[in-house]
Amino acid sequence: MSNTVAAKRTRNSASFADVIVFIIAFALFVFGLYLFGAAFSSPEGTEFWVFWGGLLAACFAFLLPILYRWARDSRR
Question: What's the distance, CA 27 to chain centroid?
């Protein structure tokens, strides 16, 4: 009986696509932080757009793995 239960369990390991999505999300988060910090020394008139662009990029970096997992799980 224990073999039947063990056979139904899924392995809790990341796939190659999971790792790629994590790397892209991390890079997007770091880029968002860079834009956020660059807004304080950007040319006059562009501070608003660089500041909000950085915040939105960092926020989207957190949503990217969530959306990926949702799209991957909805196919099953």
Answer: 8
26 found inside a domain: no
| Domain span at 69 | 35-76
Count of the separate structural domains present in the chain: 1
Contact 61, 29 (CB under 8 A): yes
Q: How far apart are the first and last CA of the chain?
A: 27
pLDDT digit string, tens, across residues 12-29:
788 899 999 999 999 999
3-state secondary structure of 36: helix
Query: How much is the pTM?
Result: 0.75
Residues 62 and 29: beta-carbon distance below 8 Å: yes
Structural domain contains residue 18? no
Assess if residue 12 is contained within a domain. Answer: no
